[in-house]
Amino acid sequence: MYITKDLVAASATPLVLGILAEGESYGYAILKQINEVSGGQLEWTDGLLYPLLHRLERLGHVESAWQTPPGERRRKYYRITDQGRAELAEQRRQWATVVDALRGVWNATPSVKPIPAWEAGR
């Protein structure tokens, strides 16, 4: 399924902050986790993730530090800050409102019926 750029962009911050709320992580691991939690429906690239992480860092929502785990290569690890946790809580409230509104509209709207071929040309 194709997810529009607008929806990916809108959901990017709460996704990354939510992942980092579980513990610090580095870029590739974040990309992998997003793919896993979305069942493969969201396949982000470095070009989406790293500018977002840098923006979140500038805003004070995440901090980063270079680490070299034993036997591994040097990586930049990101962790959520207290300010980032507050932002995540706000994002959750906003998304809950949007999801509730969508459910309300979708539950109130009758199922979309296909247009018969003879009417499609009108």
Strand content: 5-15%
Biggest sheet statistics = 3 strands, antiparallel
Taken in chain order, the helices and strands follow as HEHHEEHH
Q: List unreliable stretches of 5+ residues.
A: none
Distance between the termini: 29 Å
DSSP strand count: 3
So what's the overall shape? Answer: elongated
Indicate the structural class: mainly alpha
Can you walk through the features of this model?
By secondary structure, this protein is mainly α. It has helices spanning 5-21, 27-37, 46-58, 82-108, 117-120; strands at residues 25-26, 62-67, 75-80. It has a three-stranded antiparallel beta sheet. α1 packs across α4. The longest helix is centred in the C-terminal third of the chain and has 27 residues, at 82-108. It is elongated and about 65 Å long.
Summed up, what is this model?
The chain has 122 residues and is mainly α. It has helices at residues 5-21, 27-37, 46-58, 82-108, 117-120, and strands at residues 25-26, 62-67, 75-80. Helix 1 (5-21) crosses helix 4 (82-108).
